[in-house]
Amino acid sequence: MWTSKEIREGFLRFFEERGHVRVPSAPLVPDDPTLLFTNSGMVQFKDVFLGTGTRPYKRAVDVQKCLRVSGKHNDLDDVGRDGYHHTFFEMLGNWSFGDYYKAEAIAWAWELLTEVWGLPRERLWATCFEDELGEIPRDDEAAEIWLRQPGFDPSHLLFFGRKENFWEMAEVGPCGPDSEIHIDRGPEFCDQQHVPGHVCRVNGGCARFLELWNLVFIQYNRTGPTTLEPLPAKHVDTGMGMERLVAVLQGAPDNYSTDLFLPLLRRTQELAGHSDRDRETHIVAYRVIADHARAAAFLIADGVVPTNEGRGYVLRMILRRAARFGRTIGLARPFLAEVADVVVQEMGDAYPELRQQRDFLREVITAEEERFSQTLTSGLARLEELIQQAKAEGRSVLAGSDVFRLYDTYGFPKEMTQDIAREHGLGIDWAGFEAALSEQRERARAQAPFRLEEHPLAELVRRGVRTEFVGYRKLRTRGRVLAIVRNGRLVDEVREGEEAEVVLDRTPFYAEAGGQVGDTGSFRWRGGVFEVHDTQRPVEGVVAHRGIVREGSLRVGQRVEASVDEARRRDTMRHHTATHLLHRALREVLGEHARQAGSLVAPDRLRFDFYHLQPLSKEQLRAIEDEVNAKIMDAIPVRARFLPYEEALRRGAVALFGEKYGDVVRMVSVGEYSRELCGGTHVRNTGEIGSFWITQETGVASGVRRIEAVCGWAAVRHLRSMGDLVEGLAAKLRSSPEELPARVDRLQARVRELERALEGLRHRAAAEEVERLVQSAQEVDGVRVVVARFDGLPQDALRAVGDRLRDRIQSGVVVVGGAHDGRVALVAMVTKDLLDRVHAPDVVRAVAELVGGTGGGRPEFAQAGGRDPERLDEALSRAPEIVRALVQRARVGER
Predict the structure, then answer these.
(1) Residue 430: CA count within 13 A, CB half-sphere
(2) Does the predicted model carry a pTM greater than 0.90?
(3) What is the CA radius of gyration of the chain?
(4) Which of 358, 649, 664, 847 is deepest in the core (most CB within 10 A)?
């Protein structure tokens, strides 16, 4: 029997032997603003199909990590409820970029399936495209090729329309017919036998006929709803789901019964202490845990950590969903890290990032489980109340506002609430949920991402135009204007005072990338100056210089002298090389998990985000700072060289997740200390950095910390400002800088002493006031009510005053309030003999409502807060009326 590892490797080797370059999987976090996650194999080659990017090879083969949990491709709801839906999955693919076409793709697919893997020819079917609208030619070419395959049954060739057999990337753009390979697994696999009139057939809606492989032939460019134009170069894009292929080759009844999932199920079973029969009884929970553990492990290894938004929210949601299902089989303690460990063991050879991040995986997963466990019990109890309430009222849906409160207050992912509600036969009012979400916070609506194929400069790329970057070697060069963009349109000329984007054939200006800001500077020509404010790369291979014409006019075709602001570039280079030193120092001090999660490299500072769960201690920050400065003082040479991607990785270069690398990469080395793949600009040796100082360390998201630092002249300015600050404080305190700490300690001690004395005076004054208040108590329906206001007292001091008043009146109700630090504090007390008529929480809540607050407590004691001190007198004056109403209500109740 084929193992999953043999199948994965066998696929890659088969196509390597046929001239394909083995390409590593792109990260789950794509370099595509239109996608949350990589959801198919073609994502990393999208630019090639759009004509905006190229590769140094014509044939490729890969196994791509994919995730489908949101948007159009969302399999989450079905995960666990059947044997073949997943969130994370692998997609096997072979690719041709203008090289071979249908004949080779079909022949190789047939050979691999039947001769290498030995699938029975008589059980395989092929489908081809026939347009039901009659507008697009039938794919007779593919059909004829299928009929030539050895042992192929001609009666197993079928034609289908646009839905099944025509692939389109979008409403416009590359598209073409596809040919699908299906396998007949036998009548025992039909899951629609209970449906009257059902007939098992390809694309017939039952599980007997399973799609194995989709061969897409990209030969058209759609320019409109009914307009197709032949592409100058035809491409092949194939996709085969690893999980279902393994199930077929291993003869398994479903995907979860293969060696991709069985080790995870068995580990979960060990943790739960279940028998095989127990596992089958709870198979939905087992499948969810296995699937979600895989997804979580790969997401974290690719740089995602749990947060409340975006990709981090998806990770948090699947972790919490798995933890909730774990509860249903008795796994109350954190357990998912143990299951994720098996993912690392089983898949770490194919995906080394899993092994590299193993410790961090465990740390992140366990921390999230512990965080969720703190609120799970109370959240489940509240959800159960809502479900019972809905059933009692005869409703079929949970109110959206209630579902939002579960999400907002208890951290309950809305998908998990939907799961549990569905188990009780209830739906969700999603419109109400969205309305509650909108009311809670106003979001800045991000503008829709600019579609690459629509950018005015994309046409240059299609024509093969590129900008040559010479800025590694020189900061000034001659260049010719290739294009000018003004107000989103290509123009031939811009005049004095007009802003524009200018493209040159060659430039020394570095375009913003990899966290490094774009260069500034100027273009000069006879009678003219263009001031460059920023440099960007809006489409691959083309550098756009954004700025304004200060003198003269600038035309397409004109030659200019392009000069980078040298001082600014050198300051930027210092900070960029410093980030490489910082990255290595973080991993030395904190561990290998502390890898880059984002960065900003500017002339005046650097910002570096990295993965780590806890704030850094003062000692850790000092150790990191010392490590970086030691390497600066060693004046280590910094070198950059271009070499094959795989060779760079073998040499120990760090590749950053989320970055897009070609087959040939630029490796920046700081001696033997640091190696990273980087396209940025750097100093020649670390001594040029000068010095390095950390200015701030903060948290920016769950599991992500941020260090801000300065070096070079920015560090000089920072240290000078700190020195000025210390000298200024010393002068104000009439102390020398050296004596400043002792002077501040003495002042703080004196302040504490005065605060204690002041507090004592307040307490004594309050005690004297107690006697007066007792004497002036009001009597309401036979109940003595004492109302008092004491500003400036914290809640505990206010309670102490209330205790004295209650003890002195012996029988009655006490209401005490005060303004403190811009807020209202309230205390209500009721003596025991009156608890059959008045409860303190009823009193304090009614008073607090008048000052914009709420509260609660025990029958004899309650406290509250409020936001409106200006209405405190009015609220306290209403206390006797509130007590009267409560007493009268109790009297009516007795009758």
Answers:
(1) 4
(2) no
(3) 35
(4) 847
